[in-house]
Write a structure and sequence with these properties.
The chain contains 9 helices and 15 strands. The strands form 2 sheets. The chain has a 9-stranded mixed sheet. The chain folds into 2 domains: 136 residues, 3-Layer(aba) Sandwich (Rossmann fold), CATH 3.40.50.720; 187 residues, Dihydrodipicolinate Reductase, domain 2. With 346 residues, the chain is an alpha/beta fold. The site of nicotinamide-adenine-dinucleotide has 22 residues, from helix 1.
Length: 346
């Protein structure tokens, strides 16, 4: 293998182009090809000075060491299987698949071929999340008991001019809240059951406008998650974290995690504790550690390169992406059937 890991980006749309920019900024990786049938993608390949192919099947062997798969949800598994069949390590964008059943087929294929399979839950690479995980693991919160996560923002009306965004398979749970659920799983462990209520009362589309979810974790921790994509508000990771250059950090909190000794606010990393005795009569004060910086998309590409080199295991494996998807599937079932649904861990 050459010094630089050569990556192809399949699907050069909105996020695929950000992956291309991240590869450019990364250390240890370079762009090897763009795979996408559109003229726009062909132009991107030309301006990046790399080869273009309309389909993965037309990319010759040896063109790249791995593939960043940023195609539409419905073809993630098909593209992932095509990479595995050619023994190409592949990072699949989220949601990992459109159903757990078909996603499991990809995980099994990669496992039996011994080909690295990753999921593009890039927020786990954010240094803020890495720092939060360290605080929790080191016991700064005591025993984690409760958590709350919010995804509230307003998508413009013309967002829904694209028909698939109104149809089952889209919607804020599978498109957005899946990121927040994935971070909660990363920070707090496996989810074992969910309850949920959805509504489409605002727009009347087939997909939900808002939902409220209760998640029970294997540790016994309980979390509530609230999503609404029709509400002007700063309480989402998108707006609060400053992770996406499109949105300057709004300074608001979007996640709260409470333990027996202290509670943690994110993305600020503000840690709240009672001074002296742990009691509601003692003053409550907050410490704020320095805010670590780093572009999670670039850090994700760099980790993918190290995985391809055999230096590390994936931070977010295909199986992890599948298990996060399984929670979203259970949420939909819980809401439709109006009952608590157990989450199978794969
Ligand atoms: N990680 C994130 O924060 C994040 C953000 C946005 C989108 N996504 C995910 O990334 C994926 C793409 O989303 P998007 O918003 O960039 O979509 P998009 O529609 O902007 O781009 C998709 C691109 O894939 C191309 N394509 C379609 N079928 C293909 C195939 N078989 N082979 C190669 N190219 C093909 C299309 O021509 C298009 O250019 C989705 O799964 C989405 O959920 C993730």
């Amino acid at each position: 293998m050459t010094a630089l890991v050569r990556l192809a980006v399949a699907g050069a749309g909105l996020i695929g182009r950000r992956h291309i920019a991240a590869i450019r900024q990364s250390e240890g990786a370079e762009l090897a090809a763009v795979v996408d049938p559109t003229d726009g993608a062909r132009n991107v390949a030309a301006s990046e000075g790399v080869a273009w192919f309309p389909d993965l099947s037309e990319m010759p062997d040896g063109q790249c060491h791995g593939v960043l798969l940023a195609t539409p949800n419905a073809v993630h598994v098909e593209g992932g299987l095509a990479c595995v069949a050619r023994r190409l390590p592949v990072l699949v964008e989220k949601p990992f698949a459109v159903s757990v059943t078909e996603g499991l087929a990809l995980v099994k294929a990669a496992d039996s071929a011994g080909v690295p399979l990753l999921t593009g839950h890039h927020r786990r690479h954010n240094p803020l999340i890495v720092a939060a995980k360290r605080l929790i693991q080191e016991g700064a919160l005591g025993r984690p008991v409760s958590a709350h996560g919010m995804f509230w923002l307003a998508k413009p009306d013309d967002y829904f001019d694209v028909p698939w965004r109104r149809e089952p398979g889209a919607g804020p749970i599978l498109t957005n809240l899946i990121h927040d659920i994935d971070l909660m799983r990363f920070l707090l462990g496996d989810v074992v059951s969910v309850q949920a209520v959805l509504t489409n009362a605002v727009r009347g589309h087939a997909v939900e406008d808002a939902c409220s979810v209760v998640m029970e974790f294997a540790s016994g921790l309980l979390a509530t998650m609230s999503a609404a994509d029709c509400v002007p508000a700063p309480w989402s990771w998108e707006f609060a974290s400053g992770e996406n250059p499109a949105y300057p950090p709004a300074g608001a909190a979007c996640y709260m995690i409470g333990g027996t000794e202290a509670s943690l606010e994110l993305p600020s990393l503000r840690l709240w504790r009672h001074e002296g005795k742990r009691s509601w009569w003692s003053p409550l004060s907050a410490t704020v550690p320095p805010r670590p910086q780093g572009d999670p998309l670039v850090l994700q590409v760099e980790q993918f390169a190290r995985v391809i080199r055999g230096e590390e295991a994936p931070l977010v494996s295909g199986r992890e992406g599948l298990n996060t998807l399984a929670v979203t599937e259970a949420i939909r079932q819980a809401a439709l059937e109006n009952r608590r649904v157990s989450v199978a861990i794969h």
